[in-house]
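Re: the 472-residue chain
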Amino acid sequence: MSPNMIGFSFILLGIFLIIGKLFRSKIEVLRKLFLPSSIIAGFVALLVGPEVLGRITSRFFAEESFFYTGLLPEFILNVWSTLPGLFINVVFAALFLGKVVPNLKKIWLIAGPQVVMGQTVSWGQYVVGIMLTLFVLTPFFGMNPLTGALIEISFVGGHGTAAGLSGTFEELNFAEGADLAVGLATIGIVSGVIIGIILINWGARTNRAKFVGGKTPLTKEEKEKLAELEERETDQKTKHTTSMEPLAFHLAIVGAAIALGYVLLKLIVLLESYTWGAWTGTHLFPYVPLFPLAMIGGMLIQIGLDHYGKSHFIDREMVNRISGFSLDILIVSALGTLSLAVIGDNLVPFLLLAIVAIAWNVFAFLVLAPRMIPQFWFERGIGDLGQAMGMTATGLLLMKIADPDNESPALEGFGYKQLLFEPLVGGGLFTAASLPLIYQFGPVAILIVSIIVMTFFLLFGILYFGGNKAKA
């Protein structure tokens, strides 16, 4: 494949992003669903690609024709299919760069209930997903046991994690899992917004949500900002480097984080090969993707900069631009190369996974959140619901609608929560390792571990934080 083909593939991605932006500005229902332009662009690419338009054009054009696969030739799809696995590393490497990390005591005091709630929901997604796979999907539909991890990967992890794990799915002989995961992530984000807004209206009517509407209604511009994929932080006092273009400098920092993560991963693989891997014959880390280690690489760089008083060189807003660009590229390329045939062949399991995931998330919000979050449970819990249904941006969106003037500690707690949440689940280490863990040790073993961890967080939340509510 020539460099010109690769370059043209990126140009076409940009064109689809512009088309997505135009569709969003002209079609009101897309704005009401708060769908980002990148998701709309990905669907447009899917429609004009081989899975939809290509099924029609392939009947009229020869295989060597440019239009045989619709408006997207095969070389475009070949390039796009590799992008999610590459750009997910950028997204996760940038996750903690430029963020001032408070001490653990402050994080716990403010975000403790939301940390425990988020962990309960995420581990519960493994529990319901693996149980559904063990008792229904594998015996009746012949689904791969790895299917049990799809709910957490897709719903809490979102499009980025689902698409970023495509290489792991292939290595573990479950290539169709990547398409199912991206499809479930799409169901999650759309249903998350719709169900979240329904629950907010219900909360306002029943006086459970006390701050809906705020002191001043949200403007059109503020509503537009809510659809962005990342929280945009602009209060950083940053000293820009004068000897280097700031964008190039920050790209270099992100690249260094990824490189550090790569070294860490190779060291862990080497350690495993000489220790427990050699003793047991079980090798886990060769199947673990790079992006959770890239996230740790970014954390280590940030800690080092904080220690030496150099953190002011990192502009969080610039890091967000890089991360947002990478996430847009990732989503368009993942949706554009999605296999509808795979989803169609596994339609009933796909729908069962979606229904069970949504039911668990809504149950956790309505039943567990009031018992685990001592104060402002609705405003804080709705953020956890949004994140559990789609991604971090969905949680931010729903919290902003439920509490537009930030009269509750929901937004601050939600931000702090990520520091003790994302390194493990929601795209963190366990999310990335869940597929090889199930592959190596079987779904029953991982189900037992998930039940134990979920039960621990559930009881801790109810007995400790619920007890604080009783005393308040």
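Residues 229-239 have pLDDT under 50 and may be disordered.
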